Amino acid sequence: MTNRINFYKSPIDRELLRKLNKRSNFHGFVQSLGILTLYLTTTALSLYFFLGKMWIPMLIACYLHAMFTSFLGMESSVHELSHKTPFKTRWINEFFYGLFCLLTWNNPIHFRESHRRHHQMTAFKGRDMEVILTPAPFGFMDFFSWFTFDWKKFVMIMRGNAVLVSGRDIPDIFFWEPLFEKDDSRRSKMILWARLQFLLHIILTTFFVMNGLWVLIFTVSCSYFFATFLGRSTGMVQHIGLKSDVPDWRINCHTMIFGPVMQFLYWKMNYHIEHHTYAAVPFYNLKELHEAMKADCPVPVKGYFRGVGKILELIRKQRKDPDWCYIPEMPEGAAPAKME
What we know:
The chain is built from 16 helices and 2 strands. By secondary structure, it is mainly alpha-helical. It has a domain at 24-242. It has a two-stranded parallel ribbon with strand order 1-2.
């Protein structure tokens, strides 16, 4: 196992941090049930229009459903629940974590360990397998697929799941080699989850076919791989364009200020420097954490569209010069960047 990296952490008051670390079942339920309600509402609308043979409204409802489904997966819901921070009560957190993983072909055992390593080795080449910074790994066809069928995401997720179903764990979803050693009990649990997940989707698909509910095959088992542009674009503004191999989250993470709708869908992960610096702080306290840290962090871009525009500009620069990367400026009075 690779040794942990000593990252710089912006200092904040200890009592404030203790307050911000407190978890709330109420806030966890509001967020989780809100996201689940969007998922179920668009599923119900898709089914209603399908049964009424209203094909154009059905296609619109299915497209909206796919847009919201992307926020159930590792892009936001699965991601935050993997940290065990949204709920005060552990089993409630694990219930929603497992549910959202099932609905999006994610593996809770795999993702939790993979993401833990991402936090420990953020953007270090050859050590953080979840993040690729330079050159930015997106081209025109990638962006086009995000509005239609996201074939790269499909291949990544389903290839990894198929391998696990076969009883192997390489190639890994993110190419950890391997994620778990052979004698680690989590490896067998990860494989069992993949097999049960495949079985569940087969049972549901069979039921839908037998009852002529064809649209539910898409909404339940396929929608995670379509119309992914909102989930992909919010994920894109986390690390892209920044410098690798730097032990300072202010340098290898973007924080951006989003409006209330995007913040809700994205579980406030737009406060990404803050999330990495104090990962035990629940998402609903990240705005307050941002206020406590902002004097020691780069000035954030305000607005989802401005944020995406900034990342696209960084990608264009990297297309011209693959060795170039963006290094944020620190405000006056902030600690200097820890570059090595």
